[in-house]
Structure formats: structure tokens, C-alpha cells
Amino acid sequence: MKKIINRISKSIGHMEAVKRMLEDGEDCADVLVQIAAVKSEINNAGKALLKEHLDHCIVEAVAQNDIDSIEKMNKAIDYFMK
User: Fold this and answer.
1) What's the predicted TM-score (pTM) here?
2) Could you give the number of structural domains in the chain?
3) How many whole angstroms from its chain centre is CA 69?
4) What angle do CA 42, 47, 48 make, to 5 degrees?
């Protein structure tokens, strides 16, 4: 979980840098490249969290036949994949 938190912290710092770029009137193309990098960072953090959840919580939910947790995860995956 610590690695995921570190990724999110990195993304926050990156977004702050993007905000400064906009405030400083940097070239829009450069800003867009940086926004794309932030999107990638966030997606990677989400993938890591998904894997973590599947490895631990969902394995346990399946073992305990916890249908509610499994359905909740399916909904979260749908939101994440949009």
C-alpha cells in the first residue's frame, strides 16, 4: 500500500507542477504532455490498487462467498475502466 500512496503523492506533485506551468503561461502543447503523464501515473496507481485488492480482499471474499464485496468490486472496476 505504501508504494501506491507514494505514486499518488508523486501525481499530486506533478499536478502542482502542471498548475504552475499554466500560471506561468507555458506552451499548451508542453502542458498537455505533462497532463498525459499525470493521467498515466494515476492509471498506474489505480491498477496497482486493483491488483492489491484482488490479491487480498477479493480472494478472501470469494473464500467466504461474500457476494456483496464481489459485486462492489465489479462496480468499482466499471467506474475505473471508463
Assistant:
1) 0.75
2) 1
3) 20
4) 95
pLDDT digits (tens, 9 = 90+) for 9-48: 999 999 999 999 999 999 999 999 999 999 999 999 999 9
How far CA 37 is from CA of 10, 12, 31, 44, 74, in Å, comes to 11, 12, 10, 11, 27
Question: What residues make up the domain containing 36?
Answer: 2-81
Helix 28-53 and helix 2-23: axis angle, to 10°? 170
Give the separation between CA 25 and CA 49, rounded to whole angstroms. Answer: 35
CATH of residue 11's domain is 1.20.58.1000
Determine the 3-state secondary structure of 27 from DSSP. Answer: coil
The set of cell numbers assigned to 21 is 506551468
